[in-house]
Automatic annotation (TrEMBL):
The keyword Transmembrane helix applies. The chain crosses the membrane at residues 7-26, 32-54, 61-80, 92-113, 125-147. This is Uncharacterized protein. Keywords: Membrane, Transmembrane, Transmembrane helix.
Amino acid sequence: MTERQWIWINVGNIIAFLMFVLLSLSTEGQRAIVVLTETIGVLALVFAIITLIYGKAEFKWFAVCGIACLAPWVVFAIGYETGITATTNYYHLGFMLFYIVMIASIVFLKISFQKLHDEFKLIPVFLLFFHAILLIYIMVIHIWWLLPF
């Protein structure tokens, strides 16, 4: 396959993942939709890693952009599936890991914005919007769990 085809596969996978994230949020986290979202996210991550391995120059930065988009969602999904709640021990470690991964992914999205050209230049900016949704959600949960009642 050509590099352009790999890029469009990555774009399609990331868009499908983000649409299923919005769908799972709007259906209040029904289990079937959440599983479909996780499956599409894993496929998108696998295709981004394959593109990173076999791609060249500019296309590698697009794969880095895709991986940077999916990394905080992976940390969130691991926390969700392992059942981290306010009553579990050491739940602060999960938050710290999430915040570190989120900062690193924002840095990589900024770098990929500078390295990409043409029609792909706005994709990292678009992905930052979904990072903001996840970051606000996690910060609200973190603050809620720290309240003394």
